[in-house]
Structure formats: structure tokens, C-alpha cells
Amino acid sequence: MNGVLTPSQVPLPPASGGWREGDPPGRRQWYVREHPLALEAGGELGSVRMAFETWGRLAPDRRNAVLVLHALTGDSHAAGPAGPGHPTPGWWDGLIGPGRALDTDRLFVVAPNVLGGCQGSTGPSSPGPSGRAWGGDFPFLTQRDQVAAEAGLADALGVERWALVVGGSVGGMRALEWAVSYPERTEALLLLATTAAASAEQIAWTGVQLHAVRSDPHWRGGHYHRAGPGPRAGLGQARRIAHMTYRSEPELQARFGRSPQGAEDPWQGGRYQVGSYLDHHAAKLVRRFDAGSYVVLSEAANSHDVGRGRGGVRAALKRVGARTLVAAVDSDRLYPPSQQAELAAGIPGAGALRVIGSPYGHDGFLVETEQVAALVRELLGTERPSASPDRAPSR
């Protein structure tokens, strides 16, 4: 034997990049719902488990809890380093921690992995009633279903009222649903780069991504979890499409222009730098995410309409009783500032629309941590701490 594996001996990559039973739990905790969850589209989800992470401690009066809601492919790991069980560092690490805007010396910060996700919460890669992965049989979810599950988590934690609910993009959709569905449980609200209802263009962009996933020959109607590589190529292509909408044209031009990737010649089948950049982000997502969850969560985002069954968007927004700030990213072409202006105008007391200046497009709500931190402090009525010599500034 020369130690070289034949093609038949090379192990197949996992069908899903999501967290699986037996993987290190990392900082995750789990909430298990005692009763079936009735779904807005009909039927119910009989078994619901939700992964979540917390920082800080719940105060005796239980009034210091903050709910942080992630975007489409985020997870509960909002703060902390990458490590066993956590393939990436915290996505809002600069916002959460001692002395930061969400000061965990004072606040109890909770970040759940959304229902339908793939980092510990019940989703298509989770065992279904048969004991096998749900796969393509996983039910259709809406944002309201996901928020109802999060309300169960709040009950289990003993949180009757959130001091603040904050979310951006798809997480902002759920934050808005919290304030409309449970106004008595939402004291303050921060909506970032989000909308009252998914627009035709947003639905169209998502539809192209879903087509890419479902066109992969390894999709198999969503039943790919038991063997084989899964629809990795389709998921990667969906991420390439999505990432183009997350960044701005001026940023891409300034960073990459028409430059080739290294010694590759685009006239001879090689890549431009911008193509290599998209390939990189596609590969990153495939390593940590599940294609079935991508489909379920994307469809839930498309279903978002806070005015559905409530007399329309204007009537629904008037239900919000929380102290509210709405912020747009000035270079966002996926969730344009006009959508946040509608929210700011329709929510009682929200005041003028705030604008986050950023060249990074929609992703600015994740990148521009200091600007977001200022909005958080304003809502919570806290002062920015003076610089400490023993604490390095966050980026």
C-alpha cells in the first residue's frame, strides 16, 4: 500500500454543513418546547428545540434582558471566538460584552438560533417523526411561527418583557414581529436595514437563489441528508447571488475593479478577483450551513408581511408600543432606505430615520459596529464609557 486513496476510498463530504448531534455544543444551551407549535400556514410542528446562547445574568427583577436576532444565515453565536462547535467568530462580537454597548455586566443578552435553522435548532436536518432527518418534509414556516417559538424560549427563561429587541435584515423582520405580536413584552426596539414586508424585488432575488439550490442534482427534493455530498454546488451558487446583493457596487469596484485573480487569465478560463471573492464566500457558507435550512428560512423571509391579517402595514405598525429607533444603511441596495423610512414614519414615536453611513451595502449593519452601538446606547439610555487602557478597541 502506498498510502494513496483511490477515488472510491475518498470519504464524501458531509451532506450538510450544519451542526449535528455529537458535534461539540460550544456555548449553546437548548430550550425544548413542551407542546406542539401551531403554524400559521396550517398544521403544527410537534417537536421544537431551540439552541440559544446567553451572556450576563438575568437581574432579580427580570428587566435587563435583551433579545438579539440574527439574519438569514446567522446563528446563536453572536459573540465570542470561533472554536469547537462554533465554525465562525461571533457575528456581532464588537457589540456584546463587558463595557460594550450591550454591556453584559449589566444586561442579560440572549441570542437564539432561529427555528428552521441548522446550528442546533429544529430544522430540515433535524430528526423528524420517523427518526430520520426531516429533509424536504419540513413544514413551511413564517416569521410569526419563528417568533412564537422565541416567545416560548422567553417564557422558559423567565423573561416577561425584553428591555430591548434588536435585529437587522431578516432578524429585523422578526424583531418587528415581536413588537407587533407581543407589544406588552417589548420595551425598546431597534430595527436595522429591514422592512415591513418583503418586496417584489427581494422575493425575486430569493427566488433565483432557491432555484439554484433546487436545480442541484443532489437536492433530491430536500432528502439528501443520509448520504452523498448534498446540494453543495447549488447552495454555493445561491450564496454567490445573495452576496452580490449584500455589498455595494462602489465597494466592489474599489476593492477589485477588473483585476484578475493572481496569475489567472480571465481570457483563458481564469477568474477575476471579484469572482474569487464570491467563490470564497460560497465555500465558507457551504462548510457551515444546510441547504434545506437555506430554503426554509428564505421562504419564511419571503412570507414576511407585518400587515397580513392585521388590516395592512399601517394598521400593524400602529400596534408597536416600544420605544423605537429605525436605521438604514445609506448604500444598501437590497433593503433600500425607503423601506426603513416607511417603518420610521409608521411606528408611533419612532422619530426620524437614522442613517448608517457605510460603503459596504446591506452588510453595513454588521460591519459598522460603532454606529450601531451608538443607537443601542441611545435606546438604553447609557453613556459610552471612556477609553480603558486595558481594553483594546473593537473594530
Radius of gyration: 21 Å
Overall pLDDT score: 93
- The CATH architecture category of the domain at 17-198 and 305-380 equals 3-Layer(aba) Sandwich
Helices, by number, come to: 11
Give the termini separation: 51 Å
The CATH topology of the domain at 17-198 and 305-380 is given as Rossmann fold
Element order: H for helix, E for strand: EEEEEEEEHEHEHHHHHHEHEHH
Alpha-beta content class: alpha/beta
Oligomer: single chain
Question: Could you describe the 3D structure shown?
Answer:
With 395 residues, the chain is an alpha/beta fold. It has a domain at 17-198 and 305-380: Rossmann fold. Helix content is 32%, strand content 12%. It contains eleven helices and twelve strands. The protein has helices at residues 143-157, 170-181, 200-215, 232-246, 249-256, 273-288, 291-302, 313-317, 337-346, 364-367, 369-380; strands spanning 29-32, 37-38, 44-45, 49-55, 65-69, 96-97, 102-103, 108-112, 164-168, 188-192, 323-329, 354-356. The strands form three sheets. The protein has an eight-stranded mixed β-sheet with strand order 1-4-8-5-9-10-11-12, sandwiched between helices. A two-stranded antiparallel sheet has the order 2-3. Helix 2 (170-181) links the parallel strand 9 (164-168) and strand 10 (188-192). Helix 1 (143-157) crosses helix 2. The longest helix is centred in the middle third of the chain and has 16 residues, at 200-215. It is globular. The N and C termini lie far apart (51 Å). 47% of the residues are buried. Mean pLDDT is 93; it is low at 1-12 and 385-395.
